[in-house]
Amino acid sequence: MARPRLQIYLDDPMLQEKVKIAAARRRMSLSAYTLMALRRQLAEDGLLPASESPEEAARALDELRRHIGPIGISVAELIEEGRRR
Fold it and tell me: Structure pTM?
């Protein structure tokens, strides 16, 4: 079964790098990090329940990581690249 996809365009070239660094710091893929940020904002906007427990959130992220697989670059490399910038 295919998962729904969302494609976004960024208005700032540096934004993608900042998101990569933030995801790497949390040892997450870009997709997992972005999904977490979207869910958090939707909950803040009252469109999703804010009562998701940390355990439920962790399970959802673990499932997403299993589905996505490796991100193709080590987290250590992403962090080092972010430090060089």
Answer: 0.57
